[in-house]
Amino acid sequence: MAVGVVSVRIRLGEEVDRAVVTARPVVCLETSVIGQGLPHPDNVECIERMAGAIRGAGALPAWVAVVGGEVVVGLSEAELDPFTEPGRADKVARRDLPAACVRGGLGATTVSATIWAAARAGIAVSATGGIGGVHRGSHPDVSADLVELSRTPGLLVCSGPKSIVDPLLTAERLEELGVSLLGYGVDRLPFFLARESTVLLEHRVDTPADAAAALEAAIALDTRSTLLLCNPIDVALAMDPVEVEAAARRSEDRAEREGIRGRDLTPFLLTCLGEETGGRSLEANLALLEANAGLAGDVAVAFATGARSG
Ligand code: PSU
Ligand code: MN
Q1: Exposure pattern of 273-310 as b/e (b: 16+ CB <10 Å)?
Q2: Whose alpha carbon is nearest atom 9 of ligand 1?
Q3: Is 14 one of the annotated active-site residues of the chain?
Q4: Residues 134-151: pLDDT tens digits?
Q5: Domain assignment of residue 243, given as a range
Q6: Where residue 187 sits, what CATH number does that domain have?
Q7: How many domains does the chain have?
Q8: Which residues sit with their C-beta closer than 6 Å to ligand 1?
Q9: What does pTM read for this prediction?
């Protein structure tokens, strides 16, 4: 079995390995959204919709996770399946990778661990729903996604930061860290379930080809940070920003009262958000995950085409 081993503990799935070697378009996907971010069976639907959107664009999905002591880039369907069982996989950010490899079992990678692995596997484009950010509340909590985005080259399609963080503080931190924000057809920072925050963006692209050109420039310049391509949720499914804000605040209050902190905070808040919005946040979350995967597929195709002709 020809599987690519790019380091002792990073294994590429067979199909992904062939695609990387032949410079065909691949999109890396995180598994924390499957293991912790969405309930069952929405997480099963998420896998089908994201993978379908990427293949539909002409690219290959590469799910990233820790399995049996290795970081795997490009899980097989059978390997991915147990991640959909509630409570089965641990949440793994970059700092958790060594311990997760030693412990064995299943590790569902967040954005920080996923882009770390993607870069080492030679894959430039990834997709998620919303990135972590700077939380409100009385305890300082900043997602490890932010610093990782600042030291990993590539492009990540997202719908801005998740609606459970402060968008302005998150944007300020990203500026400080040297992470480029590109609005995709928008001039304001998308805010996950809500189409836009009030944060103005300074850069905008309107086509996958222009996003791919920006990625090429970032690589040529060796800026070493991830370009965040911020794709707003579809107008038809976007939730009212005031309603999302109110639901997020109620969720934060519940987290404070119950003393939820650390890595449990984001999954807890997402669950509350689903309850507080009568499940509508889940429908919107699935839709934006699928749309971001499709756009990432388009960018990966444009990037691979540019690389071959240039
Ligand atoms: N996008 C979603 N749902 C999620 C996530 C992203 O639509 O659950 C996950 C990603 O893995 C992201 C993580 O990296 O949430 C952030 O967690 P934290 O705030 O604990 O860093
Ligand atoms: Mn945190």
Answers
A1: bbebbeebbbebbbbbbbbbbbbbbbbbbbbbeeeeee
A2: 33
A3: no
A4: 999 777 899 999 999 999
A5: 5-309
A6: 3.40.1790.10
A7: 1
A8: 30, 32-33, 36-37, 110-111, 128-130, 132, 143-145, 263, 266, 270, 285, 289
A9: 0.96
